[in-house]
Amino acid sequence: MKLDQKDIQLLVLLQNNARLTNKELAVELNIAPSTCHERLKKLTNEGFFKAFNADINLKQLGINVEVLIAVRLKNHEREIVDSFTKELKSTNGIIRFYHLAGAIDFMIHVAVKDSDSLRAFVMDELAVFEHIDHIESSMIYHSERVYKLSELED
After folding, report:
1. 58-139, CATH topology level
2. Alpha carbon 64 to chain centroid distance?
3. Which of 38, 90, 103, 106 has a CA that sits 20 to 30 A from residue 121's CA?
4. Is the CATH number of domain 5-45 3.90.550.10?
5. Cα dihedral sign for 86, 90, 94, 96?
6. Per-residue confidence at 152, pLDDT binned at 50, 70, 90?
7. CA distance 42 to 78
């Protein structure tokens, strides 16, 4: 499916606020609501959306510390990587993780209540995985999602 300018604008609008109604989207795009609905349906059917999520204010939940944890594994066999990935998926406190190429094998975005919780997370959840060679934590002072689809625009 080739995207036109209206499709790209629709993706950008929903990326920034997935709660916009079809009517609000149509007004922003200056098209009829029925046309907007059909475009949205087509983009959804073609797999352009992985999910529609809420960006939760973690501080409201008492989660005050966000950290990026870099992990290097001792070995890189598929079985070890798959096992570690499975562990990450079932571990509380992980917002997102990335399997990377380069000096770091995994970057893990973690959210915890406080520094004691962070220490417990690292010691009790990560360090127990026998194939980890190195763990390094970096506290996040501030984060903002800035995702522009400008590279798709003509």
Report:
1. Alpha-Beta Plaits (3.30.70)
2. 18
3. 103
4. no
5. positive
6. low
7. 36
